[in-house]
Amino acid sequence: MALIVKKFGGTSVSTKERRQQVLKKIMDEKNAGNDVVVVVSAMGRRGDPYATDTFLDMLSDVSPRPSARTKDLLAGCGEIIAACLVAEDLRTCGYPAIPITGLQAGIHTDDHFTDGIVQDVDASYIKEVIAGGSVAVVTGFQGYSDKMDLVTLGRGGSDITAIVLGGALEADGVEIYTDVPGIAFTDPRLVPSAPFLSSIDFSPMYVLAMTGAKVVHPRAVSAAIQFDRPFRVRSTFDDEPGTLVGKKGEAPGGLYGISLMGDMILAHAERDPEQRLHIASCNTWFYKADGEGSTAIVEPGKAEELKELCLLKDVDVVSLQWDPDSGLHPELVAEALDALHIHWEGYFALPGGGAWAIAPDKAKDAVLALFRAPLQKG
User: Fold this and answer.
1) Taking a C-beta distance cutoff of 8 angstroms, is the pair 100, 32 a contact?
2) pLDDT value at 183 more than 50
3) Phi, psi (5° rounding) for residue 178?
4) Backbone CA torsion sign across 116, 122, 125, 131
5) Backbone phi, then psi, for 175, in 5-degree steps?
6) How far apart are CA 147 and CA 250, in angstroms?
């Protein structure tokens, strides 16, 4: 008998019809003789009745600056509703199930409202539930502080819940269900023929998530690294195996993947004694300082405060992760871009790869060209 943690996102539980797909996957696992812990997100997206953003918009109508404590308490309501519905659906189908909050699940966080960090997990109550033969249906996105306040885990929070529970329970598998069949080599909206990967190691997945890949939030990957818990990204709507994150996989053309961050700003200052660019940069990799000054990639919202200090350019950022044994290096990628007449405005080194700032009207062309280009020497 195995123990499997299955997380279902807001799209998967947003309607009764879609929840039937969720129930089938849970019941199939139980019928195979396995124990199941289910983690659910709030149902739907902004505008849907029980979506987290819908609740928060209601609170904003009351106060433009609601207290963080109140904001988190309300933000957790969507997951509670989803957990109760899924648990009751299972019960009416003949599968005992118990809805469980983040507090009951023992997910202990710091006291940083809206963006809590998991400190430790006491999964003893969940173990009691599954030992009694029931499915534990846990609210994603929630933890609790030393003061017993509900603290939400920020973007990607339900994925984090599933991963940390998988670690605490020493689960045999953690499966993150979405509306796509896994992690693609690059965004299929840019390259429809991009393959879905069977597996990818933690490190390149983390970097790709930090630089624009949207399927898995970087904090969820970070939690998986912390708890040493590989996980699989699968679709709710088919039976394909998806992508295993945490195991070195294939690298088509020597690359693990290509990500794109659109609508960014390349900022350059000849002098920056207060290191304002360093502070404003999107992440630590997207900043560099040398004899020619300081350069950073910043979000548009932070560019306004830098315009008197910096030269600013609109860019998109194309990032690559490559197999260290492939022979790829930044010069080869730059040569490929130059040969394709794709001008790039700046380069930033990444762990296991690199990022190029490219004019917005050329970035999609760059992704497609690099996907097709034979980059290895020889």
Assistant:
1) no
2) yes
3) -135, -165
4) positive
5) -120, 125
6) 46
